[in-house]
Design goal:
The complex is a heterodimer of chains A (375) and B (307). Chain A has 375 residues and is α/β, with parallel strands linked by helices. Chain A has 14 helices and twelve strands. Classes of the chains: A alpha/beta (375), B alpha+beta (307).
């Protein structure tokens, strides 16, 4: 591939929301959160433009995110939630794609699909069963587009740090873009920063491998990661605060019913999941990380007595962090756990600095012992 | 204000006053039952009540048992609690609703008195009054005992106490109050400007708070209420169980939506079951939200599943 081809590919990729390297050909993704049929036509046309310059094996998928939430109540009495219903029916979408195929060249039109995705309280539901990796990747892309939050340099750096901590293989710039919802320049800057510290190893196939991340840098990344999240604090005005263990068990139960699936337990409980020797006997509160645009309706289901407060000094029973971290970093072993970096960031926020440091020392030590690298 | 009383001590005295053969037919309801259930292991905790509600169950034997108990207590120098007008026994020709109720106290007792009640004989129907009066004929004249439609729930799995008498389960008293007050009604408690429904619905929240306090770290007890309530409705009011479960939450939701009524309910609770608990309006409202989410909604869900 020539450098001008690469440049063209990058330019075209900026016009779409994602590209999945499928076995039988790439899949281009465009996401529209809309109730307006004109937006859908615009999305179909944009995809077709990009598709026209692609190999015949490439297909395209327009995902229409339709708000369908029916909310029972509010986590804060002064902020009643509204019921929202989409005006677009599946039949309307079917008619639209049929019309599109009748007016566009068949060799392009037949390679474009249109799906409606319900955005409900329980999260985003794909209308079909895809291979698990594609499904999880697509959910990430859709969730990111739904929130309108783009990954920044910190998101990319955190993702690289996590991929190292977990011993994952090398990544391409494009996969980092997709993973973090970040632009090419954003990923390039984050990569350059780590390369300048001699922590990244470029491979001949243009993939990048994180060689090593020193403990001090890991802690700094965790601090900056903490600063990049939005925080919601909840108090229990009854004085009968439910334990973090009780609330997290309730969350896992809700998740078995398909609710709040992109919410993960962090804080002390999460840290203990990764590091059982954590020197804290009781968790002062429950920390949860929210990885999607699903909102905070799930809090009412955890405990309807909880009330959100703006007072940062209030003794919170529950703290919810809306994280830009990719949903792929949720750990699903024996529960739903926020990433190591989320948990470390929570400990730092609680003021458990020594414990956060101890946890990262052990986790990075485990990684180093596998690599047989001496810091 | 009524002086604080130890629920365990009052229950001991009540049981001792009743003929031994009658004790197993007694179910204590109301604040003494709640106080004993929640505070009997804690000598520090007290209740502020002057009425001990003593229900005879089953309904078929209630009048006979109440007659025997009344005779025995009168012989033991107990006297009618109320003023002169309602202390004079009635005549056989008086209709039961015109007769004085059996409300007795020891002649030297100022702290508490006993009100005798009957378990209801069947589920309340739309054309049947919630409250029914049953004649109790004694050697000194006629009295009446009352039965309330939904108090049949107190007969569901009552707790046997160390003194032989039984006490109603808190969730059953809560459910009876919920069903009794589908709306915030205008009826006032006599000699006050306090609404009866605010008192009874507020008590539901007080019971929920105390149930949660028993196991505050995991709150399992409150989480089990809906199942128990549904079983009781099925057992006691089988044909109407679904309809009753679906409407049980209406009054409490109305209370939660009315700051003035909620405030009044809290004031009543704060001189009763929640005395010294330091609950403010924000906390009381939160207790209500938790109760709706953890008890009312699961109860409604159980009812819907029963279709």
């Amino acid at each position: 591939m020539t450098s001008s081809n690469i440049t063209m590919n990058r330019l075209r990729d900026r016009e779409i929301d994602g590209r999945w390297p499928g076995r039988d050909g790439d899949v281009l993704i465009e996401v529209k959160r809309t109730n307006n049929i004109r937006d859908i036509r615009d999305g179909l046309l944009s995809l077709t433009y990009v598709l026209a310059a692609e190999p015949q094996s490439t297909t395209a998928l327009l995902c229409v995110l339709m708000p369908q939430s029916r909310l029972l109540g509010s986590v804060h009495p002064s902020r009643p939630l509204r019921t929202r219903l989409s005006r677009l029916s599946p039949t309307r979408l079917k008619l639209e794609i049929e019309y599109f195929r009748s007016v566009v060249r068949p060799n392009l039109a037949q390679r474009v699909r249109l799906i409606g995705i319900e955005d409900t309280e329980s999260g985003i539901k794909l209308p079909y069963e895809a291979e698990p990796n594609f499904q999880s990747w697509l959910e990430d892309v859709v969730a990111r587009e739904a929130t309108g939050v783009r990954g920044n340099r910190q998101t990319v750096t955190s993702a690289l740090a996590l991929s190292w901590l977990r011993g994952e293989g090398p990544l391409t710039v494009r996969s980092l873009q997709d993973l973090c919802g970040a632009s090419y320049p954003t990923v390039a800057t984050a990569v350059e920063n780590l390369t300048s510290l001699d922590l990244l190893e470029p491979r001949s196939d243009r993939r990048l491998l994180v060689r090593y991340i020193p403990l001090a840098l890991l802690m700094k990344i965790a601090e900056q990661h903490a600063a990049g999240r939005k925080i919601h604090r909840f108090i229990d005005p009854t004085g009968q605060v439910k334990s973090p263990e009780t609330l997290s068990a309730k969350l896992f139960k809700l998740q078995q019913q398909g609710l709040a699936t992109k919410v993960a337990v962090g804080g002390v409980l999460g840290a203990r999941h990764y590091f059982s020797d954590l020197d804290i006997t009781a968790s002062p509160r429950l920390d949860l990380s929210v990885y999607s645009a699903g909102g905070l309706d799930f809090v009412r289901r955890l405990d309807a007595a909880l009330e959100e407060t703006e007072d940062a000094r209030a003794k919170a029973a529950l703290v919810v962090h809306v994280t830009p971290e990719p949903v792929r970093f949720i750990d699903h072993h024996d529960g739903t756990w926020a990433s190591e970096l989320e948990c470390c960031a929570d400990l730092l926020e609680i003021g458990l600095t020594r414990e956060a440091h101890e946890m990262m020392t052990v986790l990075s030590g485990r990684r180093l012992s596998k690599l047989k690298v001496r810091p | 204000m009524t002086a604080p009383l130890s629920p365990k001590e009052v229950l001991r005295q009540v049981a001792a006053a009743l003929p031994e053969a009658c004790r197993q037919e007694v179910i204590i309801v109301g604040s003494l039952a709640a106080g004993y259930y929640f505070f009997s292991d804690d000598g520090e905790k007290s209740i502020r009540t002057k009425d001990v509600d003593c229900m005879f169950s089953p309904h078929a034997r209630a009048v006979a048992t109440a007659t025997r108990v009344t005779e025995d207590l009168l012989k033991a120098q107990w006297v009618q609690r109320d003023g002169e007008r309602w202390s004079v026994p009635g005549k056989p020709e008086d209709s039961p609703d015109r007769l004085p109720l059996v409300r007795l106290k020891r002649s030297n007792e100022t702290e508490w008195s006993l009100e005798l009640l009957s378990a209801p004989d069947n589920a309340p129907k739309d054309d049947m009054p919630m409250r029914q009066f049953h004649r109790v004929s004694t050697s000194i004249g006629d009295f009446a005992i009352c039965s309330f439609g939904f108090l049949a729930l107190a007969e569901y799995d009552p707790v046997v106490t160390q003194f032989g008498v039984r006490i109603a389960r808190p969730e059953m008293m809560a459910l009876a109050n919920l069903l009794h007050h589908e709306r915030i009604g205008p009826e006032l408690i006599s000699d006050t400007d306090l609404k009866r429904s605010n008192k009874d619905l507020g008590r539901v929240l007080a019971l929920a708070f105390l149930a949660n306090a028993r196991n505050v770290r995991d709150g399992t007890e409150l989480g089990e209420w809906a199942d128990g309530m549904w079983s009781a409705l099925e057992m006691k009011f089988k044909p109407q169980a679904r309809q009753l479960a679906m409407r049980a939450g209406r009054g409490i939701k109305e209370l939660l939506a009315s700051p003035q009524d909620l405030d009044q309910a809290l004031r009543i609770c704060n001189v009763g079951l929640l005395a010294s608990r330091d609950i403010n309006a924000q906390g009381f409202s939160a207790i209500g939200r938790r109760f709706v989410a953890e008890v009312i909604e699961p109860l409604e869900a159980r009812a819907q599943e029963s279709d």
